[in-house]
Amino acid sequence: MAPRTAPSTSGFVRRSERHKGWRALALAAALMLAPPAAAEMPRRVVSINLCTDQLAMLLAAPGQLVSVSNLARDPLASAMAERAAAYPENHGLAEEVFSLRPDLVLAGTFTSPATTGLLRRLGVPVETFAPASDMAAVRAEILAMGTALGRDEAARAMVAQFDADLAALRADPATGPRAALYYANSYSLGDKTLSGQILAAAGFRNVGAEAGLSIGGTLPLEVLILAHPDLIVSGQRYPGASRSEEVLDHPALAALGTASARAAMADRDWICGTPYVLRAVRALRAARDGLTE
């Protein structure tokens, strides 16, 4: 009688291997379809730009922001100078910033490429923000900062409040008074700029735009005089003397001022695309209301 042989297991092994293969494929598909894991919130954030300083101070979680630029403490340029005093300052130098051991650096698109480039080569993540050119960019910058800091919900809430406050302040410029933005060296701004949109939100027609400026450029004094605006808006005068500002004291402009109102606005509310631009709109609305009294 022939010896009995053990039943072959090769079929079972092949089926088991096939099942393992299917399970591996199913797992891979599930991983591909699953939403990406949320990026870890940065814990040591350093800002080296005036505008990112302020957005970060508005949105960062307690203890998350460890340093802001020295410009953030300048009351002429920063809308948050007092609050910035609570943070260690930096001067935007790569070596200085690296020594703070940041896991995220916030910079502007005009920050020194040597600084941002060296930090990136040292393995430090750097997020850059462009200057806001209109009200839509203000919203976008707030949301982008929220994403960079892992604070998206806070950023969305800030944008919602910004939109509500802007809607409450906004006036139609179509039939409103005419205003000219006029600065040192006869510099002015058109309607495709953040300053131009602040002017429009307050209900003013832009004399610079009427003269052909869409962005920034020179508005000759003669053109300004002939335009005869209802309001001339200029920035704050800085300490010291500058030949570039002499045009603001020109006798012809002084004579025009007897018939046109002049308003010196705080530069700090106009420079950066933050919710503080609403203070500029509010100040202009007050000036507009004063013209009709």
From TrEMBL:
Look up the domain of life of the source.
Answer: Bacteria
The record's annotation in InterPro entries points to: ABC_Transporter_SBP, ABC_transptr_periplasmic_BD
Its protein name is ABC transporter substrate-binding protein
Q: Which Gene3D superfamilies match?
A: Nitrogenase molybdenum iron protein domain
| Boundaries of every Fe/B12 periplasmic-binding domain copy | 44-293
